[in-house]
Amino acid sequence: MYKDQIAEFIMSHRDEMLKDIGDLIRINSEKMPARENMPYGEGPYMALKLAMEKARGYGFRTTNYDNYVGAIDMGSDEAQLDILAHLDVVPVTPEGWTVTGPFEPKVVGDRLYGRGSCDDKGPAMAAFYAMRCVKELGIPLKKRVRLLLGTDEECGSSDIAYYYAKEKEAPMTFSPDAEFPVINLEKGHYVSSFEADFADTCARQVLAIASGTKFNVIPEDAVFKISGLDSSDVDCMRAQAGDLGVALEISQDGDVTTVAVKGKGGHAAFPEGANNALTAAISIICGVIEPDCDANRAVIALGEMFPHGDYLGESAGVKMSDDISGDLTISLNMIELDGCRVCATFDSRYPVCGTVETTADVLERNGLKYGLRLTSKTMTKPHYVDPDSDFIRTLLADYEMYKNKPARCVAIGGGTYVHNLKNGVAYGPAEFDTVNNMHGNDENVPIEELTSAACIYAQVIIDLCS
Question: Could you tell me which of 273, 221, 280, 270 has the C-alpha nearest to residue 92?
Fold first, then answer.
């Protein structure tokens, strides 16, 4: 079983693993403009380069797929298990970090802080240390395990599409980029925008709104400008901000009032854990304007379809649920509004029962009632892997072995790296009740989750590949 040997190895190499994770965190690997031999810019390239150098230094075989993906191999040439992780990170707002800087890794108590600590540099290295454990314990493998390190997971996973255009899927794949026990069902994913053009003006008008950085990140900041407000309107906005649980910074320049809204960011797959600054801003705006011009009418329409706190899509007309995958969720995460037009982007995670007719078509009809055009009805289908397989039974059993608690398959709203792989599931390293601020300020990971995940992953490699 090797349980005691695995646990001893991982704990004796704990500090070394944290150092290797910290080295990766220090690299800002947000997606950047492409450069020669750097498809996603310098940051992701440097993170991948460092990870591959570390792997070779520990004696592993590596392959670099044109700086899109790096592969670290162990075992024979017969593929059996792929472990799919990534080194890119979501954008950062440095001002909101309180424990340490986003690219300055720091251990505080029992947690490691820094951008990428939980998503996904920490988990990637936990999987790598599982491979080190098996290798350095001298446990022979009859089949190959391959750790894939991608560099574009946060912005569409074009890296993995590039890799799988060259290589076949392994018979089994898991991604250490989610939660335990085993996520075998991922909801469908639908991202689109509402647009409108403006032809008129009015005295009290929304002049601009800007919020959001990525479609799958719930914004913590929003800024808007309105003309024609008076002091009573400012008092009204402050009172409403208190009710919504957001902070305001207000300044005035002549007839124009500028308002900065601070909420709480998060991942679009878990909107209930965030406080969306954009929908809060729209709600505040709607409290002080009238539908006297195109810009105001567009904002009021967005406020009616996406009221603050309604992440189940009831007001948008798409609320639905099923027993297998749970509720649809939807969040308005990006907006650009100026004097000429508006473009507002939403992110929806829909259950297996969802269809184009019950989701995109409904949103299109409801948007048109307000003069808003839906830009796309292309939807990514849900992903489901049969839980009654040797692969998933092994994952569940090994989780139970090391965690000493029952395991089961679960469904999530997030679309993971394995969403388009026939036999791919997400597998740890976090527990579902862990608060780690993923995609937000002060992102962190409990160190015990990394070490226990490394133990579990080592056991899985042995059980599936030896």
Answer: 221
